[in-house]
Amino acid sequence: MPRRHLTSMMARYNGCDLLIDCGEGTQIAMKKVGWSSHSIDIMLFTHYHADHISGLPGMLLDIANSGRTEPILMVGPRGLQRVVSGLRVIAPELPYEIVFRELSEKQENFTFKGYDITAFRVNHNVIWYGYSLQIHRKGKFDVEAAKALGLPVQLWNPLQKGAEVEFEGKTFYPRQVMGEERKGLKVTYCTDSRPTAGIVEAAEGSDLFICEGMYGEPEKAAKAKENKHMTFYEAAVMARDAGVSEMWLTHFSPSMPDGRRYMGDVRSVFPEAHLGKDGKTRTFVFPEDE
Amino acid sequence: MPRRHLTSMMARYNGCDLLIDCGEGTQIAMKKVGWSSHSIDIMLFTHYHADHISGLPGMLLDIANSGRTEPILMVGPRGLQRVVSGLRVIAPELPYEIVFRELSEKQENFTFKGYDITAFRVNHNVIWYGYSLQIHRKGKFDVEAAKALGLPVQLWNPLQKGAEVEFEGKTFYPRQVMGEERKGLKVTYCTDSRPTAGIVEAAEGSDLFICEGMYGEPEKAAKAKENKHMTFYEAAVMARDAGVSEMWLTHFSPSMPDGRRYMGDVRSVFPEAHLGKDGKTRTFVFPEDE
Fold first, then answer.
1. Fold for domain B105-137+182-290?
2. Which residues of A are catalytic?
3. A281 pLDDT more than 70
4. What pLDDT is attached to residue A273?
């Protein structure tokens, strides 16, 4: 829309940028926030409707212009390679490789540069996915425990990094010197779906749940059902049931000019519901460091 | 760019909208001006670099949403059908037909719903085109001449529309009752090229000449030559040589933040040179009706 960009999300952690969906204009929205496309190491696609992927050729060329030569991992439902090949008719030559991972299971888990990623199927007419991103955080290194075991300082670091070490004929394990895993961070992203128990399960305990809210108007509940979308209230019920800390609504119908008028009712279901908007960003700090 | 759309042009005449090029965000730029995509009957492409066609899938879907069922003619250099098919991987089903006309000659002329269109090759590395659009205007119907010939009123209209008529065993021709062709309108569009005599010839006498001006900085003349683009001054020389009424510069390099500072020097070459900008529009009236 003239004054609203299409729905997408970018996560930035530890030098690795992760993009979910890339509709027409996503590269513009990204630049407005002041972010570069250079460090996008991974792109996740929920599905291949044009509003979620039409900006890909331009984004790929923008990344090429930024001088990137490292490969990019693309993840999405089956058909990903075919769709990307089609769109690349106008971006045939890129200075970096694209690696594909096509999803087909009900749920798939994988790790990528510090992100633990869960792809979960959502409920629309075809096989589409939502994504949970988790940053797990190890426990603290217990200096006293390491000393008590008599371990020399040079063996502390491999144990901290999760490796077993041998010393004086004995094997030592990380669990002997590491405290319990500390609370990490979790963000869940879900769009173009009816509400499902699977989404609630995937979103459980998220620090942020980004969820489609196609309609704010309560009378559009039937329309939402028919079109396989959700209302603000349905999203709020899922946020409450999943026990998330905060929810951002997004992917609004163009027919809804201003979602604010519905937020009172939405917050009576889930108080920490907020409207998404272009360029909305949030910096998360590990709870213990706050 | 965050605050500048990609280069494209739309002409609207007699209910028929004509679009030249469609980069990412062109549909947004068009909506900002308040125009609908519904009446785009013909699309002309200069070439298939992403910044000139990446917005096509979204535009096609927007047109579909507008309820159009009439066919659309697409015109462009060889490869058009292959490129459009690739991009349509995300817009496979449309309620209207697309008709293709692929160009290969040095110059091709055709008419479409009142537009006389000339496609002319420009000078880049591969076969690309610029376009001249002309609206020809017939002479006035000479009522006295028709009366003098003794023609009944019901035969006037077919003669006005260019048909021969038979009356009392004799054939009458439009030239017998029509005055000389009156001055029409001409707009020429040219981008991504070095200056050429062919462009000057095609643009001759245009009411408006829209021409790329990649660089305003005089010291970038060598760079323009190397990259097969033009400077503001080279465009101005062509505008002067072609005897156009007005020139709009467009397709600026992202490295040039403000072209205004060069316009004094440019206007010393061609006084009616102006910078293009997002949403710039101009309404032309047939000279005789002004």
1. Metallo-beta-lactamase; Chain A (3.60.15)
2. 51
3. yes
4. 97
